[in-house]
TrEMBL record:
InterPro entries linked to this entry: Transposase-related (IPR052344), Transposase_IS66_central (IPR004291)
Protein name, entry field: Transposase IS66 family protein
Domain named Transposase IS66 central: residues: 35-110
Source species, domain of life: Bacteria
Organism per entry: Idiomarina aquatica
Length: 119
């Protein structure tokens, strides 16, 4: 897969509610499932002006039935480069070199600013 051949990747996960329609002999029932969307990407915001030799940016969405670390481990099999992630421990099961995400750090420091303006 071209994505795994890149020198740098980012990933995140989120849950997405999906309503499913189940038809039983007694009638129709709606139920909700909660799959996880794992998002993998690489590239820059946009290629430098005039640069036509840069490979295209890639964003790939991988829907799974849970948030277990086995999902990124299986998807990233063979990738050993830098992987920018949040603090989720499941990424530690991969062979990638984990790099922290500054947005995730900001989320944890914002409440401190409200309590103490000096932070």
């Amino acid at each position: 897969m071209a994505l795994r051949k890149r020198e740098y990747m980012i990933t995140t996960k989120t849950d997405r509610q999906i309503d499913q329609l189940f038809i039983s002999p007694s009638g129709q029932k709606t139920f909700t499932i909660l799959p996880y969307m794992w998002v993998y990407g690489c590239g820059t915001d946009k290629p430098p002006p005039g640069n036509t030799s840069s490979p295209p940016n890639i964003v790939l969405y991988d829907y799974q039935d849970g948030r277990g670390g086995s999902h990124p481990k299986d998807f990233l099999q063979g990738y050993r480069g830098p992987l920018q992630v949040d603090g989720y421990q499941g990424y530690e099961q991969t062979d990638a070199i984990l790099a922290g995400c500054w947005v995730s750090v900001t989320r944890t420091t914002q409440p401190a600013k409200i309590i103490d303006a000096r932070v």
